[in-house]
Design a protein that fits this description.
It is built from two helices and two strands. The chain is mainly α.
Length: about 130
Amino acid sequence: MKTEFPYLRIIFGVIVLGMALALWLLPQQQQSVQPSPPRQQLTHVEVAGVEAITTTRTIRFSGVTRAAHRAVIAFSIPGRLVSRPVEAGSRVEEGGELAGVDLHEYQNRVNMARATLAFGSRRAPC
């Protein structure tokens, strides 16, 4: 079969190349024939100034908050609680007043201790 048609491959290759060349040139000829439309379309643009926003956005969440640190408060002197200037859960500064105690009972104990001391010092010379 190779000996019967030795030039068949060459002829077939020339035909394929001719068709490829024709397909490649055909679109180029059509583009050159048609004039391109003018591109002079105007686009209208509006310009706006940028201003800073002065409003604030509030976000609210519901839930329960708990203190990270708890302090147990105890008085070293007896007495009745008369004032509490700080509400539960409020932030306080170190050394700030948390509560006020009625000092009448404490003052009575101080007076009693002084009287005992004075009485003891009178009895000592025996």
